Structures are given as C-alpha cells and as structure tokens.
Amino acid sequence: xxxxxxxxxxxxxxxxxxxxxxxxxxxxxxxxxxxxxxxxxxxxxxxxxxxxxxxxxxxxxxxxxxxxxxxxxxxxxxxxxxxxxxxxxxxxxxxxxxxxxxxxxxxxxxxxxxxxxxxxxxxxxxxxxxxxxxxxxxxxxxxxxxxxxxxxxxxxxxxxxxxxxxxxxxxxxxxxxxxxxxxxxxxxxxxxxxxxxxxxxxxxxxxxxxxxxxxxxxxxxxxxxxxxxxxxxxxxxxxxxxxxxxxxxxxxxxxxxxxxxxxxxxxxxxxxxxxxxxxxxxxxxxxxxxxxxxxxxxxxxxxxxxxxxxxxxxxxxxxxxxxxxxxxxxxxxxxxxx
Length: 338
Known about the structure:
Number of strands: 14
Strand content: 15-25%
Shape: elongated
Radius of gyration: 21 Å
CATH topology of the largest domain: TIM Barrel
Oligomer: single chain
Helix content: 25-40%
CATH architecture of the largest domain: Alpha-Beta Barrel
Largest sheet: 8 strands, parallel, barrel
C-alpha cells in the first residue's frame, strides 16, 4: 500500500502515521519528494489489517494499493523523478551528469591524467574499476584497495565525485569508504545479497542491467536496494546479449522511456559497454541525451591501445573533449543542460 501524506504536516504527525503503520504489521519506507512525503507500506495484506482505514486520518491525503510487483521503485509510489545528490551533483535533475574515466584503474599517472582531463572537459563524476569482473580468470582483475585509494586521491585533486564497482559482499564496507556511488555490474545484477550489502553502505547505488535481463527483473532487483532503506537508486542500461555479433552488446535505448514510465529512479546509459566499440560511443551518447537519459557513464583512457582492459571501447582524452563540446544541442532537445 502507498500512504500519501498531506503537505506541510508536522514531524509529530508524520511519526504518528509511521507508528500506526508499524502497529498494523507493515514495514514503512519513507520517500520525501519536493511537495509530498510518501510512505510505502510493505506487508502481507492477507495477514494484516488493511491500511485503508488510515484514509480518514487528517494527516493523510490518500491511501492507494500498488498494482506492480516492484512496489518501491514504481512511479505509482513516487510520481516525481527522484533526485540523487552526489557531492552536490544532482542525478535526475535538470543538470545532466556525465561520469567518465578508465575502465580499469591501472596506475596513478594513468588515472590522474584522465581525471584532470575529463574534469576540464565538463565531467562531474569519475569512473574507474578497482575490482574488475573478467570473463577469464587470467585477465587483469584490478588493483583492489590500491585502486580505491588512487580514486580517492583523484577526487581530492579534481573535486570529481567517484563511482566504482562492488563485486563482493566482503568488500562492501571498504568500497563504501572510498567511493561516492556503488556500481553493481551486469554479472551481479541479480546477486541479491550483494545488492543488500551495497544498499546498507548508505551510498547511492547504480544498478546495471543484466546481460539477458528482462525489464521487470531489473526493476525487481532494484527493489532490493530501496527495501533495505536506501532511497538512492539509479538504473543503468549497458546493453544486452542478442544474436547480433557486429557489436559486443545491443544497447537498448528504449529503456529510457520505459524506465521513466515505470519508475521514479533516474536512468543512466553506458554506451561503452553497450557496443564495445569506441567509434559508436559518441552517436549513442547523443541519442541517449536527446531521449531524456539522466546521465551517461563513458570509458575514457589516455591511450586506449595500451589499456589493460576493454581498450576497443574507450574514448581518447581528445575524443571525449570533442564529444562534450558537441553534446549541448542534444541535451537542449530534452530540456537539459550541462
């Protein structure tokens, strides 16, 4: 059930509603919007009394059932798009956010060179893998905590926020200490215990779509984050596996209007993983921006030919700078700005 509170009620009145929801056997999840506070009440309506009785309370505007299986991520719960504040950068607001950096953190020089270049070009968030999920166990797996420390150093030098991937529950606290956004990659999109661990760090979570994941499965995976008292979830489309071999994956840009229709959580597009080819990245970025995506996450490297992982899909520093100069008209088409 969804309980919508009236605007401008006191903290005391809000607390009374929450107390009653708990008394009736439901778990409340509070979502504060610009104009309204909404409480998602999760519980078995066959075992507990209906919350419709709360409709008569003076603090409450209305009580509604949720028809979707994914309750907390649903736009039924939260009509307005959620805004996620990452060190002053608002994901989901009018200002478009660009996350950029190398696929893998390789060295201090490589990371610092990239961080300063993408910051100068207009990126607001630095991406970089400290732990890398690789198909082969013999490929570079990342620098681990050393890579996290380099990301933190780059943040201090440039002012960029940081996003990096979490691969293991046992590393959740450590990764949460260094990063500003926790990324859950495609291979772990339905690793529910990992999602719970990420949520419990309190850091914003970016959930990538699984390799062969249906949209409902993706939304339900996101439910694990919100249902563990972390309201800061964003979805990331990074391409799905199809019969096509021309590109590494098939980037499904239809997820932009679909996620915006079904969920209040922001949608990020990853064109680097989406195609696996740097010559296609810029065009897909422009398309995603014009279609209304909330942010991009792009792989950028000083010398992609020498990258330790996924060099074929990374833009050069100059290529990224040129792209950022060309981006504003496509954002304007969607009513956004850099």
